[in-house]
Amino acid sequence: xxxxxxxxxxxxxxxxxxxxxxxxxxxxxxxxxxxxxxxxxxxxxxxxxxxxxxxxxxxxxxxxxxxxxxxxxxxxxxxxxxxxxxxxxxxxxxxxxxxxxxxxxxxxxxxxxxxxxxxxxxxxxxxxxxxxxxxxxxxxxxxxxxxxxxxxxxxxxxxxxxxxxxxxxxxxxxxxxxxxxxxxxxxxxxxxxxxxxxxxxx
Length: 202
Description:
This protein has 202 residues and is mainly α. It has helices at 2-13, 16-34, 38-41, 52-79, 82-88, 92-128, 140-164, 167-189.
């Protein structure tokens, strides 16, 4: 099992998709704080989970990580590398489990890095403007939730990729659910809306 996990991690670190997601997460975290300018600074006294820039990052992170999980599976179907993978690991459950562990770990790294970039950018902006960023202990559950959702969304992507197999259909279907269908459903569920998958990490 360890060899399979190591192989899946090697696949991740030797492709551009994972590094693209990591760089994109860092870039969005920085821009989310810098773009609003003085409007963001005025809100720094509020808890992190009430900050608009934190919401933007959490929303886009789930999209990035969902796509990363989908591509981890559909790229193999698309390029035919799934066949040698299954020859090495005939038991599909072991191969899927290895992908889940590797992608969950990658999601944690991306989410933690994005969170660090987010806080670092906010602290820098706060220092330049002579204000204090609210970073009391009550904010840690927000960061913990961000990291946990970072582990979960690639796994959701793996499941979607295994079911649909078509990369385009899986990505489009996932995005349509997150950006359109779930929003319609959420407005009708009231307090239960928080249990929808797209609300994880928000």
